[in-house]
Amino acid sequence: MTFTKLDEHPDWAGGDVTVTAIWRKAIRFKFPRYQELLRQIGVFTPRLSKLTVRSGICHLYPDICWEDAMVKLLTSMFAVLCICLFAFAPAKADPIDDEVKAAYSAWDAAFNKADAKAVAAFYTDNAIFLPATHDVIKGPGGVEKFFGGIFGMGVTGHKLELIEAQGDGKLLVGTAKWSAKGKDAKGADQPWAGVATHVFEKQADGSLKLRVHTFN
Question: Per residue in 48-82, pLDDT tens?
């Protein structure tokens, strides 16, 4: 139903049709019953913007506008809090990463004691070791001999930093950056670094041993 005059609407018959009355009616008669009435306000006061109507309502009913503002503020604060909690929630640790990192730490500790036999103990009996020299070394005995030569050169400070680890329970594969303190041809200190790939085989006691190790 369309009303050609605002005071023809049954809720406004005989009533005040000033802008102030419009604001008062807008508060008193809420949606959805008076949606048409509010549309009629736009017809009879074409220059009355939504902002102007809201400003007038807030002038006449500051308590209502204050409550509305507080609801919006608290809603915004809650949304921000949820985002912050999600952003700063600690990431769930990956057990495979933890296992490989622990193996790396133990290997580094043995290396930095210059203990070739202890380093070799991290390799399976059928291990294949492919160093940057392009040698193909098999088994713990060959590994021990290789690292004995490395320690004889005065290499220290070895560190493995995990790049990524994957596994299926029995075999775990880790990729890492490695660094160490070496010597140049004249015996001066020289930083060494590269990347390495390790294939670990889980033992019956849950420990990890290297089945394949290559680095450059």
Answer: 444 444 554 455 445 545 555 565 666 777 677 66
- In the block, residue with structure tokens 């140049």: 184
- What the block records as the tokens of 150 is 């490395």
Rounded alpha-carbon distances, angstroms, from residue 110 to 115, 140, 151, 201: 6, 14, 11, 19
pTM: predicted TM-score of the whole model, two decimal places: 0.58
Closest alpha carbon to 113 in 122, 125, 124: 122
| DSSP category for residue 90 | P
Tokens of 92: 């769930």
By three-state DSSP, how is residue 41 classified? helix
Amino acid at 165: A
Do 114 and 148 touch, CB atoms closer than 8 A? no
Given a contact cutoff of 8 angstroms between Cβ atoms, the answer to whether 172 and 145 are in contact is no
Q: In this structure, what are the phi and psi dihedrals at residue 149, rounded to the nearest 5 degrees?
A: -65, -40
